[in-house]
Amino acid sequence: MKQLLILSGKGGTGKTTIASAFIRLADAKAFADCDVEAPNLHLLNHDGQKESKPYLGMKKAQIKEDLCIDCGACQRNCRFGAIDFKAKYHIDPYACEGCAVCTLVCPTNAIEMINSIDGETTIFRGNRLFSTAELNMGSGNSGKLVTEVKKNLKDNLTNEELIIIDGSPGIGCPVIASLSGVDMVLIVTEPTLSGISDMERILRTAKIFKVKTAICVNKYDTNIDLTQKIETYALAEKIAFTGVIPYDKKVVELINSRRSVVEEDFSVSRAIKKVFISVTELLSI
Amino acid sequence: MQIAVLSGKGGTGKTLVSVNLARLAKDSIYVDCDVEEPNGLLYFKIPNIEEEIVYTKYPVIDHDKCIGCRKCTNFCQFNAMAFILGKVRVFKELCHSCGGCKIVCPAKAIEEKEKEIGKIKHGYHDSTEVFSGEMVLGEESGVPIIKALLNKVENSNKTIFIDSPPGNGCSVMESIRDADYCILAAEPSIFGLYNLNMVYQLTKNFQKKVGLVINKSTDDNLIREFAAENEVKILGEIPMDLELAKINSEGNFVSQISRLGTIFEDILAQALSEVSL
Known about the structure:
By secondary structure, chain A is α/β, with parallel strands linked by helices. Helices cover about 35% and strands about 25% of the residues of chain A. Chain A has helices at about 15-25, 75, 100-105, 140-155, 175-180, 195-210, 225-235, 250-255, 265-280; strands at about 1-5, 30-35, 50-55, 60-65, 85, 90, 110-115, 115-125, 130-135, 160-165, 185-190, 215-220, 240-245.
């Protein structure tokens, strides 16, 4: 069994488009969407029986007003600025990180830690297994929710050959959580200075966590010079370069009709197939 | 006055919109809060930029004083401490710097040290003042850097443009906390629409005034329908334009090109009049 994670650093470079194409090309029986702050893979893949569960993240502090003596110790000791005073002391659940320091310093035990629903996990079960989740707005804990998405997938697996995981943009906690245990990360970049800068940061982050990487360039023909720069960079850094995919406005049209781009034969689907073959070779499938 | 540009989905044009509006607004401030993947400085090229390091605290155990009571490891809500082979060990990368372990320790065996989690870069590009945050690779959370960035501008009278991170989580919320107005950058795809709705609910929850910019706009599109249904003002539409994409891809301001500049001037004028309503 091999796990392929698709990341990009910069958002909007085509992670989900490529993940959904790979799922179809591989006829994958198990896949996950770890972009819990902005999930999209379920818009194209939602077959099977849907099971959703609320996700409990960190507990949050809450003041029992009848016991509070307005001493302000909680506010003085909170390092997250989560406690304000407007006639009464009040904890902002969006700023509270659940550290429980306020419960330690409160002289009257007026603060309790209560469960907080930070999102929802979903599994689609049928011929294929799909694990996804959605973080509640403004919540922390996206990394823990990503770990939950991967656990839900793992707990229900039989013996699939290839697991495809769609990741999130950035390099922070959800990305780091998604990196654990994968066999390879495919970085989908685009020929823009932003795309290149963000690609370099995610590549260096993956290196810290000792995960093997490969690169492909999406919309390569929007700036040929920068595409060449990326290819030269990959060569110099000894990172596998798996190919380039052209820009075509038909991609959005297909996505908007909820179809995977590889359902039609055109320049983009042919290019993605080539990238897919390179990736499977690198994974030795 | 703070105007935050956010999107939910990545790559819909947050940086494109915010750098061009900040440049056109003159005497404004641009703050790049996408500290995981900051790109604003690729546009605002500033030689000899000032840098300031952002630190957070983490606990260090004095093993001579530690009595092995495990109060700290039991208290830590983030599993950043564990009692292993007779010693308390600290996992710095999991620590949220709450200071709780130091409070519960009965033996005064815990001191706090500072570690670098990122930096703030600051300088001027013509009349635009620029702040950009950058998180250290391998760190989990950019929130303390975003807080430090926004502390720098909280008392300013200038118009502040905040380039937010993608997503819908804690760092996005932190970046719009004091925003007077939110510009939602969206693209007309089912992905763009789904994530736009998520981030729109976030801004509604915080009672923010919002307007929409449709990027890579097409003739008949999903985002216009969304705007009509939710009665959200469309500040402007940026067409899918290969010349624009090329100029922008090389870190140049598309608003310098007169044909495209008027689009951004209109968006700026619309946004400023909406804020003052």
